Amino acid sequence: MEITNIILIGFMGTGKSSIGKRLAKLIDWEFIDTDWEIEETTGLSVLEMFRKHGEVRFRSEEALVVRRLEEKAHCVIATGGGTILNPENWEIIKNMGLVICLYASLDTILERVSNRNDRPLLKRSREEIEELWSSRQAFYNQAQIIIDTTDQDIDGVLEDVIKKIKEEGFELNELAED
Ligand code: S3P
């Protein structure tokens, strides 16, 4: 089976952008990050957007970006952790190609994001982050492929992603051959 696009979903800190960028480079597809698209079109960082205009405005910018991506092909797309919670976004994304979820345990996520300050939704207590993380798992589990990135480095995750794509019977171009 041929893949039109590969879309990465999952919680913050699961490696969607790092893995997406590496995968796109490997198979020579375009890499798109929805957060970067929002930053480019609005001229504000995600953090500034949340601070100046709030989450509601961020979510509407995010939905506009997703709508613009609908006709894309041969792209690896890293979504924001909340993108697919909007049913309209999910409807578009699931029809765009192979959806892969990157999973990580809460401890791993907290460790990975501990020295970063750019995620407004993580500026809260562990209990609150845990609640957010738990409440979203059912959405992420809608992906066709789920990769556990806990205790793995980028190379290991990338290898897993490629292996799983092939195991599921999808074709990647010859560049992904080892
Ligand atoms: C969000 C995740 C972020 C970014 C925004 C909101 C979320 O993206 O879109 O801060 O709701 O989970 P990453 O998952 O790339 O950090």
Q: Which value, in Å, is the CA radius of gyration?
A: 16 Å
Q: What is the percent of helical residues? A: 40-55%
Profile the largest sheet. Answer: 5 strands, parallel
- The backbone outline, from C-alpha atoms, is globular
Binned strand content: 5-15%
List each distinct ligand once. shikimate-3-phosphate
Alpha plus pi helix count? 7
Helix-strand category: alpha/beta
- Tell me the strand order in the biggest sheet: 2-3-1-4-5
Order of helices and strands: EHEHHEHEHHEH
Number-wise, the strands total 5
The residue-averaged pLDDT reads 95
User: Unreliable stretches, pLDDT < 50, 5 or more residues?
Assistant: none
Distance between the termini: 20 Å
Write the layout of secondary structure elements.
Blueprint: E1 6-9, H1 16-27, E2 30-33, H2 34-42, H3 46-69, E3 75-78, H4 87-94, E4 98-103, H5 106-113, H6 126-140, E5 145-148, H7 154-167
Parallel strand pairs: 1-3, 1-4, 2-3, 4-5
Brief write-up:
With 178 residues, the chain is of the alpha/beta class. It has seven helices and five strands, in the order E-H-E-H-H-E-H-E-H-H-E-H. Helix 1 crosses helix 7 and helix 2 (34-42) packs across helix 3.
Walkthrough of the structure:
It is a single chain. The mean pLDDT is 95. The longest helix has 24 residues, at 46-69. This protein has a 5-stranded parallel β-sheet. With 178 residues, it is an alpha/beta fold. The chain is 51% helix and 12% strand. Helix 1 (16-27) crosses helix 7 and helix 2 crosses helix 3. It is globular and about 45 Å long. It contains 7 helices and 5 strands. It binds shikimate-3-phosphate (S3P). Shikimate-3-phosphate binds next to helix 1. Residues 12, 16-17, 35, 46, 80-82, 119-121 line the site of shikimate-3-phosphate.
